[in-house]
Amino acid sequence: MGSSGAATPEGKKTTVSPKAVIYQKYGSRASYEVEEVQDFVQNGCPGLCIPQKGPCLYRCRLNLPELSILSGTFRKKKDAEQAAAEMALQKLGIHPLTHNADVRDAGEDLVSRVAYLFSNEFLASQHPLSCHFRASLSREGYLYGSVPVSVIAVYDGKISTLCKLIDPMVESNPSLAISFVLRAAATLPTLITATEGQLWIRRQNPYPPEVIEPLLVEQPSTLGGVCVQALLIPSSLNEDVKPVTLNVCSSNYYLDVIAQKLGELDASKILVSRPIGKASSETRLYFVASDLQFVEPTSDLNGKKLDIFEGSMNTRASYLAGQGVYGGAILASIGYTWKSKDLFHEDVFLKLYYRMLIYKTPSGPYKLYRESTIAAELPVVFTIKSNWRGTFPKEILCTFCRQHRLSEPVFAISRYPVKALSDLSGSQKKLKVTESTEDTGQTNENAANHGDDETVESVSHFRCEVKVLSKLQDLLLQCSPKDFYRKETDCIQNASLKVLSWLSSYFQDFNMPLEKLNSLADALDIKVNTQHLFKEFKFCSTMYLNQQRTIKANNCIDGPQATEEHEHYLLRIEGPESGICPSNGSLACICYSACLVTEVGHTKELIESSHEFEFEMGSRAVNPHVETAVAQMSVGQSAFYLVDLPSQELILAAANDSARALSLINSNMCGLEYCITLLKVTEPLEDRMEQALFSPPLSKQRVDYAVEHIKKSGATTLVDFGCGSGSLLESLLDYPTSLRKIVGVDLSLKSLSRAAKVLHSKLSKSLDADMPCKSIQSATLYDGSIIVFDSRMCGFDIGTCLEVIEHMEEDQASLFGDLVLSSFRPSVLIVSTPNYEYNVILQKSDLPSQEEAPDGKGQSESCRFRNHDHKFEWTREQFGSWARNLASRNNYSVEFSGVGGSADHEPGFASQIALFKRLPQLDERLEDGESVHLYNVIWEWSNHETTKSFD
Ligand code: SAH
Ligand code: MG
């Protein structure tokens, strides 16, 4: 099978069918299913399509382990199969040419290609490489006409392809290509001079004058020359990367100029890397060839050799290029292109170098896109599309893979109709699988292609699996989230983000023990093939591990301080409190600046700033300290604080004046001062909907309902389960009640601290003034989970739980119900939760600016639940059966009520409420069980005076 790729004599073009390539790669793991498609001939009347049997057509589905592809329709079965195979190759990024002809053919092809490059015809042609050949004719003395082999290996696409065919290891060690070109040249002694041990080759006989003369006339007359800014990256990490100037004029060969900067006289010793950054860029690394370069990475090196290997390795340059670079290297954007015969050049500044470093990290493209390298972080969750700012996770993941020369990630989307989902519960019924390596639009098309019933599609849920593969198709990692999404794009983005999050942790600590890496992966539904992964990222790990080593060494010189202490800073907030505060899920819009400040002399240097930076609270889209600050602010206020410096890379990728930033960083006692103003807060969808439709807002109506009930009940003790920021507890203080003891429990520390703030100020006032709440003698806030037992929650008169259960998984909601009613046993329990049936009405109230709905499905799809943190929303029937079962199990009665809307009109209340009452029980005795304290007291208040009088 492998020999089917015979080369045709003239063109030297190997033609092998896509099917053959697939067979070579997958063997029997590839299966083709051909199906007949009826072709309906249209009868000329648009809209009136009368089926008439036309010729029989075929389409083919190709199933591969990682994807399945459906071809278009063809008259011949054979064509459909080939088309499917070709589409698969495209998706996998495999070029047929690189996988067909056997090695011997490739070797022969390489020889003839090299011969062609030294022909008269090629010299006159328009090709980036022919410019090098022409430039070599301007070299003087013994260098006249000699062309560096590295240039031949790098600038001709055909040569690179053939070299990879001879040995796929060229992919990871491009210098191998040089030996292949030299070997090919050696077989052409009459045409080419190639001296052993030399890295240049030259034509045996000079070009005839009739070939050369027209070229000289054509030559651009830019005699003056140019100065190109480039960077020198020393191999020692102790030396900074510094600017160098290349003086290039039309009478010298630019590679000779670069060679001189690297201390070499002869450009043929210079090796040229792949383009860095974007594939289309001409930014490359130039470095002197070392013997080590030609050692195959797989060959066994004994320990000693390895030391030398590591010693001269230029870790920064190797990281950038993704290939071994030894000794000093020059990073420059210069070279010949297809566009013009003139030399292309662009200045490369330090900032660009640092941005390139950042771009290669998993979160880099996000930070750079947001133009916020030091304040922005790649969020850890993708909630809804309209809350995401910046490049989408899937795009970032694709960029990351390209940057690290991996294959394009493979996405597999499974579709489940909603009905099947409800009886799915664990047992996995896979119904339809569509594939995409491209954008989601394409997947939609695929889905539509063979999804014959539209109705099923509109009520489907999606799940997405992502695979990251090396260029040679080794599986590096696979993420298979169990969550279902209403929208295809959401499941793709979420899975991509999980992969990126894991990669980020890996990039932050390449020394992380294997167990920890795996447990992080587990938590993100990821399986990692560490062996392949470590191999692919070896240059990255060397880079960051060595850097850490040097930082540590430097810190020791400066003194042992700094490294250990972190994140304690003083936050100063200025401006009047407006009461408009961001909470989880809301969008905060801030204006910020970050300046380097030195303790000595108080020098300040602006590093990064933005007039309008918007992010979703609670998704960790910014540095933790920025979010902490913003969480404590209200609109209009400003915050100021100082933090330790982030990594030098980040600062220099942001700073405009790199030299100055560098000198400040190196001077001791330098910190980063943040100044943040909160400009605007956009509420989460739920709040906006409830405010748009109800007056007073639904949240207030809920609280009022509970307050009314408490007033009437004569209760003296109350516990609010999931009290959040204390909206109910706070309102209670505004009315005279019989309450003496109030308690709140939540697991959000941020909400609890806000609750503590308001309760504290209100209760303190009650001591002096004649406030309605003066009956209250103690108030306590606990940090704890309401599905965990704590004996201090037992025996209250009233328990409340407003809009909390839907934030837990359904089984946990049941657990909570049982725990409260069987163990805590309050006399009364009030539980509220959204009524799912009411959502149609909420969604009809117009909410402009949300969800541009590019897929035409509209916004009702995106906000099926009122809040992205909701794990479920129940219909009246679901809530009813949950509550009735609970009540009967635990000897309580239950009644139903609600707020917003009415019980008598469909679809019932907007918020449904269950009122549980403990039924008298003969054998009920309040157990004096042992005390179990699993909650932490966050804040406690007591009215000492009154307490005393009771003593
Ligand atoms: N009852 C408040 C807050 C509702 S928001 C009000 O009506 O305004 C839901 C709250 O439930 C959040 O503050 C969240 O932190 C809390 N919560 C969710 N799961 C919890 C759990 N297992 N234990 C305690 N609190 C929980
Ligand atoms: Mg809620």
Written overview of the protein:
With 951 residues, this protein is an alpha+beta fold. The protein has 34 helices and 30 strands. Strand 28 (892-901) and strand 29 form a beta hairpin. Magnesium ion binds at residues 803, 806-807, 867, 870. Residues 432-453 are annotated as: Disordered. Residues 100-211 form the HTH La-type RNA-binding domain. Keywords: Magnesium, Metal-binding, Methyltransferase, RNA-binding, RNA-mediated gene silencing, S-adenosyl-L-methionine, Transferase. Its EC number is 2.1.1.386.
Which structural class do the helices and strands define?
Answer: alpha+beta
- Biggest sheet strand order reads 28-29-27-26-23-24-25-30
Task: Give the class-level CATH name of the largest domain.
Answer: Alpha Beta
Which regions contain 5 or more consecutive residues with pLDDT less than 50? 1-14, 40-52, 295-308, 420-458, 555-567, 846-863, 946-951
* CATH architecture field of the largest domain: 3-Layer(aba) Sandwich
Mean pLDDT over the full residue set: 82
Main sheet: strands, sense, barrel: 8 strands, mixed
